[in-house]
Design a protein that fits this description.
Layout lengths: L5 E3 L5 E7 L5 E6 L3 E9 L13 E8 L2 E6 L1
Antiparallel strand pairs: 1-2, 2-3, 3-6, 4-5
Length: 73
Amino acid sequence: MKVGDSFKCPEGHEATIVWIREDKKVVAVRCPQKHLGKVRKVADHTKPILRYRHQPRTERQTYLKNMVFLIEI
């Protein structure tokens, strides 16, 4: 196992190893597929604007590409 080899991400996609810990018990893999990211507050343009420069906000889950996972072997 070395940097650049293929490895499965936690969701089963084909990913690439980008880092290996010295004792070879943990690897970091970068997956090119989309994964659900964290919940973020974004402007909600469907509601009317409040005061000057204030937008109503709503929480929404975002998708991220090229997410890096740390995996114990």
